[in-house]
Amino acid sequence: MQYSLGIDAGGTYTDAVIVRSSDRKIIDANKALTTYPDLLQGIENAIDGLDGKYLREVELVSVSTTLATNTILEQTGYPVGLILVGKHTLHASTPIREFVVVEGGHNLDGTEDERLDTEAVKDYILKVKDRVSAFAVSSYFSVRNPAHEIKVKELISELTGLPVVCGHELSQDLGAYERGVTAYLNAQLLPIASHFIDSIRSDISKRGIDAKLMMLKCDGSVIGIEEAMAKPIESIFSGPAASLMGASFLAGDDTCSVIDVGGTSTDVSLIDSGFPELVDTGAVVGGWHTKVKAIRMETSAMGGDSHVWIKNREVNIGPRRVIPLCLAAVRYPGFIDLLRSGRTPSRVQLGENIQPTKFFVRTGKQSAGLSGYDKDIFEIIGNEPVSVNDIFWKLGKPVSPDRIDSLIQKRLVQAIGFTPTDALHVLGEYTGWDVEASMVGAKLLARLTPMDEYELCREIKKEVAINMALSLMGFMFHGVEKAEIEKILRGDYFSQFKVNVPVVLLGGPVKAYVEELGELIDAEIIVPEYSAVGNAVGALVGKGVKRFEILIRSFYEKSQRSILVFSQDGRKKFGNHQEAMKYAMELGNKLVLDYMVDSGLEYDDIEIDVKREDITMDEDAGVPVETKLTFMGVGVPKA
């Protein structure tokens, strides 16, 4: 009997599932807390909870991970030198520190615009080679002619031997700077991805698993592990992509919308006829606009572990994630006593970091570079939770919440606080951790509001449901102001929003929100079995999908009409459109098949669809002046 193993390393939990290959039935599943900064420990813990007799027969392992996204958001990527070829203008505020702009580049027809300044390229390479781990290269219109990018790559390899990422290797879309950003981020991630994948390989090998290893991309498709190591940028947002694919599989419906309630955020997306809706303009992550094709999604900073805090007798939820009180009580013995004995701040002091239920503890990350006031505060915060009041008495002077906030932003300190997960514990709708700690916290916070602890928790639960509905309708009514949608959701009308596709809920205790969500929207709401590990399922059931675009354009050179074909293989000239079409069709099919086979798929499992778009002029007797061919290959990985 053959089995497959799916793994998702999410922001709060790491999930693992075993699926029987013959009928795709889920055989076993497990959850473990995600471990930072080393994700591997959480993955090992998740796999350890699975039945070993199935693990020995696993022949396919597929992974989705937050690693690339977190690295970009936390700005912890490796140093990279960026070489921009052509008429680039970078804003003075660009966060890219190591870059150079040199003469060169091509025009729209792939003709050389300026000669490549190889001496300037060599000077820059030699100048920075000892302080970067890789290089990224982007040239003007390299999607029409990558010759200058290829030449720069050759020079870097000759002079340094360091890895090089070219823009045309990652995207065939116009936009030289955005391709450069994509190459730059990808180069930052190369050592991190290599270490992560090598660790996964080592772990499954140690368990006696001899399996094909794949990874889920941010467009919901899977790729072979070698491709994943070469293009780790394509795994950004693979978590939301995994939730979408997993929800569709678990619900048995290839057209549905998905609300994934995680610990940190709520993500909404849509799959139609088995294919996710994509953002054609490219994914945006951490303020960077990339050329990576990713699923379109609506994200809000409210999840099960969002911080609930009181100010001016009003309830606030998020945007920061904290360790729930119920989990802290399990993790730190004696925490409930600390919670009970804590001082309630005056109402004028209350803020996000000053709450009767707010505590702080170290993350384990090294604190190099701290000095002065920040260092004093950090030394007081240890491996056991402390409150602001505790810090005040040990420091001997008032504590600035902003300084604590700075330590949190640097990920040196993790906050503990009341959360929607705690509210569900109080209401008895989810009891995975310590109910007593949640109850104590609810009573402390309720004193700061006009409500008792149960009314407070019902109010929190209602707000989470409204946020789910708002995220869903914001996604559906793309372009409509969220404030107008929220006004309708919160209003008392004889009408409500209707959703014409099933709404699948994923996440730990999402079943608790079905009734409240059903009062806000008219929809078929589905909470499938194994919804708590839907992302791990999604990592495993994604299809192999690859798209290539080839452009055929007419142009005139000395009154002589020629045909140019542009592809990732470069620029090729033909005498007539028929010859160009024949070449383009053969090349497109070859590119798809080669990619899919390299990703671990068999020829017999691959289907290729070709879409053709023509632009014609009457005076050209029906011969297109431009033809765009889009090749899409689809295959299902098999163990």
Note down, in words, how this protein is organized:
The chain is α/β, with parallel strands linked by helices and 639 residues long. Among the domains are: 80-188; 306-456, no CATH class; 544-635, no CATH class. Helices cover 36% and strands 27% of the residues. It is built from 21 helices and 32 strands. The strands form 9 sheets. Strands 3-2-1-4-9-10 form a 6-stranded mixed beta sheet, with helices on both faces. It is globular, with a radius of gyration of 27 Å. It starts with a strand and ends with a strand. The mean pLDDT is 88.
Tag the structure with descriptive keywords.
Hydantoinase/oxoprolinase family protein, six-stranded mixed beta sheet, Oxoprolinase-like, 5-oxoprolinase (ATP-hydrolyzing) activity, Hydant_A_N, 639 residues, alpha/beta, ATPase_NBD
The level of helicity is 25-40%
Q: Which strands sit side by side, in order, in the main sheet?
A: 3-2-1-4-9-10
Radius of gyration: 27 Å
Task: Please outline the major beta sheet.
Answer: 6 strands, mixed
The best one-word shape is globular
SSE map:
Elements: E1 3-9, E2 13-20, E3 25-33, H1 39-48, H2 52-55, E4 58-65, H3 67-74, E5 80-85, E6 99-102, H4 118-128, E7 134-139, H5 147-159, E8 164-166, H6 167-170, H7 176-206, E9 212-216, E10 222-224, H8 225-230, H9 238-251, E11 256-261, E12 266-272, E13 275-276, E14 278-279, E15 284-285, E16 288-289, E17 294-295, E18 298-300, E19 306-311, E20 314-321, E21 323-324, H10 325-331, H11 335-341, E22 359-362, H12 372-380, H13 388-395, H14 401-409, E23 413-417, H15 420-427, H16 435-446, H17 453-476, H18 482-490, E24 497-498, E25 503-506, H19 514-520, E26 521-522, E27 525-526, H20 534-541, E28 544-557, E29 560-567, E30 570-574, H21 577-598, E31 606-616, E32 624-635
Parallel strand pairs: 1-4, 4-9, 5-6, 5-7, 7-8, 11-25, 21-23, 24-26, 25-27
Antiparallel strand pairs: 1-2, 2-3, 9-10, 11-12, 12-13, 12-18, 14-17, 15-16, 19-20, 22-23, 28-29, 28-32, 29-30, 31-32
Helix pairs in contact: 3-7, 4-5, 9-20, 10-16, 11-16, 12-14, 15-16, 15-17, 16-17, 17-18, 17-19
